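Translate structure to sequence.
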């Protein structure tokens, strides 16, 4: 049964003894928990409460300070961590029907990416987005930035799934139109190439179709080398005009830097600065191949970076970015390149990858910051989410600590990052609504969605030739 934030209902779900549902317009008091606040002083309350009123946090504190609460509905969350919902700052939710596409290297034609984009339709966009958001919610992600491209039909499927999921989703409709590029392999094929007018019209159309306050649509440029100067400036101007965020992939590979130098005579960050798009509105996806001068310029202009630690491997500059004062979040990236949407894993990689160059650097506390409040800062939402503080949105997760991976509980902060099992996330609340209750989504039929997506994927991947290529290029024999 779907339980929205204004139902006024409260009950205990079957399953774990700590199962809860949102109280809606009534207050709901979650007590007896280990509370990781991520507030400015980073308070960790070993026996605390979170008081929710409607869609917001009313109070957070120790059980000893709670006092009289009258008739407020209470749910004991003993043996649970309560902490802010995780923030995935870089993802591609509509392409979950193409999961593992990076394994299809050597696909004939212009690229597997474009072959996949040609078969992504409204059904695939909806099913992929729904499954992708369900996977993220069940792992504790309450907010994600989703960079998407394709037809309006595809994008509408993405919007619909986002609204039905109950997650907080910042959809970025990105444009790509490179036709004259220093690197021929980066030219965007004409049949999937945007025009400036078409991209702007699509943004207007999609924004007019959004009905949920939790879902937004904003402009992004795909990347420095797949977007013309005219497209880049037009999309940025649209963001400024409508007071929206702006973003792009940049600095993901060494080749991209070489290509930018060959075409523009300067490296990526100075090029973006020369266009006037390097500013606090900008969220850069990746940035792992920036040099120190570029990182310094990013910090000076106030832009943010989303670090995709699994995809970027050992190439990581998180230590330098944080020391420069750059707003840094982390992202799973999409399912075509990082099959897993486990942001806990990404946080662990973000710390461990740094130790290749900086022995002993980083901590579980740093990783928890990247998962929550720093991610909120990177996407420009730290005034609303990212920490458990009075007045902020009630976006939070409840984690069952009676698990082998989280034992002993004397080292919970470390265990959460270095040994965590995301299935320990039992309850997920977004904007005061319990979207995941005892591991189950309030309305999505998980098994049906997964089966439907697999059926769609088999049809679409066969039509595009991707499935045949995947099987024929494997050293294993399909019979």
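Result:
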């Amino acid at each position: 049964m779907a339980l929205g934030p204004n139902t006024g209902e409260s009950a205990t779900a079957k399953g774990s003894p700590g199962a809860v549902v949102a109280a809606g317009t009534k207050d709901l008091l979650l007590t007896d928990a280990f509370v990781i606040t991520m507030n400015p002083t980073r308070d960790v309350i070993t026996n605390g409460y979170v008081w929710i009123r409607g869609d917001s946090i009313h109070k957070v504190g120790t059980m000893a300070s709670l006092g009289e609460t009258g008739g407020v509905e209470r749910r004991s969350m003993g043996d649970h961590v309560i902490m802010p919902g995780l923030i995935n700052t870089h993802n591609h939710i509509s392409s979950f029907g193409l999961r593992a596409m990076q394994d299809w290297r050597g696909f004939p034609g212009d690229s597997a990416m474009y072959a996949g984009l040609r078969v992504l339709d409204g059904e695939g966009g909806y099913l992929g987005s729904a499954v992708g958001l369900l996977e993220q919610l069940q792992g504790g992600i309450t907010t994600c930035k989703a960079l998407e491209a394709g037809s309006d039909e595809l994008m509408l499927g993405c919007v619909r799934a986002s609204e039905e999921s109950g997650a907080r989703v910042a959809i970025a409709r990105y444009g790509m139109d490179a036709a004259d590029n220093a690197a021929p392999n980066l030219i965007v094929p004409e049949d999937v190439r945007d025009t400036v007018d078409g991209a702007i019209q699509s943004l207007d159309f999609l924004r007019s179709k959004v009905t949920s306050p939790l879902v937004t649509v904003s402009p992004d440029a795909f990347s420095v080398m797949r977007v013309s100067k005219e497209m880049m400036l037009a999309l940025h101007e649209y963001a400024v005009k409508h007071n929206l965020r702006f973003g792009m992939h940049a600095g993901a590979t060494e080749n991209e830097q070489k290509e930018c130098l060959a075409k523009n005579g300067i490296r990526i960050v100075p090029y973006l600065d020369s266009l006037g798009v390097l500013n606090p509105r900008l969220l850069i996806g990746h940035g792992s191949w920036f040099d120190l001068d570029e990182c310094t310029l990013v910090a000076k202009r106030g832009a943010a970076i989303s670090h995709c630690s699994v995809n970027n491997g050992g190439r990581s500059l998180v230590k330098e970015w944080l020391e420069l004062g750059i707003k840094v979040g982390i992202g799973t990236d999409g399912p075509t390149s990082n099959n897993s949407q486990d942001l806990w894993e990404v946080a662990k990689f973000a710390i461990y990858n740094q130790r290749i160059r900086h022995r002993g650097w980083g901590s579980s506390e740093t990783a928890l910051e990247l998962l929550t409040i720093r991610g909120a800062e990177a996407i420009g939402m730290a005034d609303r989410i990212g920490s458990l503080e009075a007045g902020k949105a009630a976006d939070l997760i409840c984690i069952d600590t009676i698990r082998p991976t989280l034992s002993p509980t004397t080292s919970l902060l470390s265990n959460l990052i270095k040994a965590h099992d995301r299935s320990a996330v039992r309850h997920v609340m977004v904007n005061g609504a319990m979207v995941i209750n005892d591991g189950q989504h309030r309305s999505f039929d998980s098994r049906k969605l997964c089966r439907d997506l697999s059926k769609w994927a088999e049809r679409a991947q066969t039509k595009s030739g991707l499935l045949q290529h995947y099987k024929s290029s494997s050293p294993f024999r399909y019979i």
